[in-house]
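agent> step 3/5: call structure_predict on target 'Transposase-associated ATP-binding protein, putative' (Acaryochloris marina).
agent> reason: downstream docking stage needs a structural representation; sequence fetched in step 2, passing through unchanged.
tool.input:
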Amino acid sequence: MQAMIEQLQHMKLTGLLEAWREQQALPTYHDLSFDERLALMVEREYIRRQNQRMQRRLRQARLPVHATLDAVDFDVPRGLKKIQFLEFAQGHWLQENLSLIFLGPTGVGKSFLAAVLAHHLCKQGHTVRYIKTADLLLELKLTKADGSYPKLRKQLAAYDLLVLDEWLRDPLSLYEAREILDVLDERFRKASCLFATQIPVEQWHPQIQDPTLADAILDRIVHDAMKVSLRGESMRKLTSKLIPQKENDNPALSTKQQENKTDAKPKNETSAKSKAKGLQETTDD
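tool.output (status=ok):
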């Protein structure tokens, strides 16, 4: 028996081994047939391996926040359609090698929504890498110095989804535009990208120093990308603890301040439901 245990450990079948030990300890399993008990042990091992792979994908994705679809507040008026977002979460667009563009001003939740979507797609079995555009350019530059540049380029081409946050926040130099073009070209109609940006698409071209490279970069994005335009107030503002809900709900106000605020309606009042949900949407955007 000890030999079997050691063999299972050597093969790293720890889920199967745990299930076997559980069956040995609990009499309720003794009434099951051999096939039924074996099926339960195999199922335990399968679930363990699936969970391990999912955790590995989540670590690999390097998400700024690990949040689920339930954390998204669809009641906040910012142009986000629940049906559309949940459809994106199904991942059909990845199978068609399409891309997404999240557009909108600071604070509306572009980065958070991208992270939620990436997290859900990781759990579905897709490989994802989330990175700010400036960090990607720096990483490409550093890997050229240490000799790991080809490895990084191969990894970037292999992800099912590459999320580029703060896309074109800063203008791209000639060198940077070439690097970005190479990354996008290797993924063009082979894998998907998600761009989160404050810059409207019609203003992308001037953000790229070289007009020819600008044409090439945009040509590899805009024709196969679905656009989601977000609007509204900053989620950070709406979820700030410093914004009073009602005049008597803020204990930090002095008695005199409370008196002065009598009959005054707060300007930044939001629904309790929006604040309860939106509190989770405070990541960088």
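agent> step 4/5: record observation. The chain has three domains: 2-59, 69-229, 235-278.
agent> proceeding.
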